[in-house]
Write a structure and sequence with these properties.
By secondary structure, this protein is of the alpha/beta class. The protein is 23% helix and 22% strand. It contains 6 helices and 9 strands; from the N terminus they run βαββαββββαβααβα. The termini are far apart.
């Protein structure tokens, strides 16, 4: 059974249209689960989490207050094609949820009570996200942990837009992907 998560198209855009008053810089977290990154002092953390967004919001607010910045948790996934897509929930708190199915059965994806539920989620591209941020605002950091889609998202992003990002931390695999149909190998794809 598929459940549709309703995310208004202009949720994030409406907030970001305020032209970032008093924002010194931006950090972006794709796939935070319940542990989002902190903003810099006077900065903004844009956090994308389609499954655990309620707990991520609580944790992001705590980190933003402690850091003296702001955070916005956007309940959406990120891939190379915008729109809506099915996401399969795996692991505790949806920790290993992905737009792709698991490649093999393992401890993190085979608990029938917990794993395998499919929900429809809003999907943005990194190009769209970067377009929301005015050019005058530095993008200090991009962290990705998007279950095999990391290389696809980064490699399909317009290079001129991507070059605005000062630092990148990404998940990559040393072995075959845990998910069907994705490439994210550190040697074959990233190097």
């Amino acid at each position: 059974k598929t459940h549709r998560a309703v995310v208004p198209r202009n949720l994030a855009e409406s907030f970001l249209d305020m032209k970032f008053p008093d924002v010194s810089d931006v950090v972006i977290n794709l796939g935070s689960n319940v542990q989002p990154i902190s903003p810099n002092k006077n900065g903004l953390a844009l956090i994308f989490e389609p499954i655990s967004h309620k707990q991520a919001t609580i944790n992001a607010k705590k980190k933003a207050i402690a850091a003296g910045g702001m955070s916005l948790v956007i309940p959406a996934a990120v891939s190379n094609i915008p729109g809506y897509s099915n996401m399969t929930i795996y692991n505790n708190n949806g920790l290993s949820s992905s737009l792709s199915k698991a490649a093999t059965d393992a401890h993190w994806n085979s608990n029938k009570k917990r794993d395998g539920k499919v929900v429809t989620v809003r999907v943005y591209t990194l190009d769209e996200i970067l377009d929301w941020i005015p050019n005058k605002i530095p993008i200090k950091y991009l962290k990705t942990d998007i279950q095999g889609y990391d290389f696809l998202v980064v490699s399909k992003t317009n290079s001129e837009k991507f070059n605005r990002i000062e630092s990148l931390m990404t998940e990559a695999y040393m072995v075959e992907s845990s998910y069907k149909g994705v490439r994210n190998n550190v040697c074959d794809d990233w190097v």
